[in-house]
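Form 7-S
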Amino acid sequence: MYKIKVEYRTGNSFGSEDTEESLDLEWQDLKIAKENLKAIKEHYEMYNKIESCRNWKNNNSPQDILKEHSDRWWFVSKKDRFFVKFKDEFRIIDNTKENIRKYKDHETQMRYDINMCQNCMKLKADNGNLMQQWNFWCGYFESLHGAEIVTSQDNDMSFSI
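Output:
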């Protein structure tokens, strides 16, 4: 069996530490584990593009970056924000039937939920099913150092004190 071990930095306002954690999902097929490892790297590259876009006003918007990656099998596509155009700007409103009827004559948009798309991804299981997970290495105080495929060991083959 194979697992993916993730090495990352985490912390809070008072300090940070390097740590590692293995994903809960295990694979018998090394090829699929490698696909997932590659997907984690691609997702984190997308995550960093969005973060740099927020911090340094560049030409790409977070929505553009999400759209660019939306065809990847690991991408969590969630569009639940409903935007209505008032004069020259879009404002978020609740996506309710009442609001949809109320603003039917306005220009509207559904946009990607940046938080969900940026912090979640799908991983492939051995049977081909996709499993969605929250990426614990993505966050305000987190930064990914790397990840590797390791063989999982039975609990009765080691111990620590």
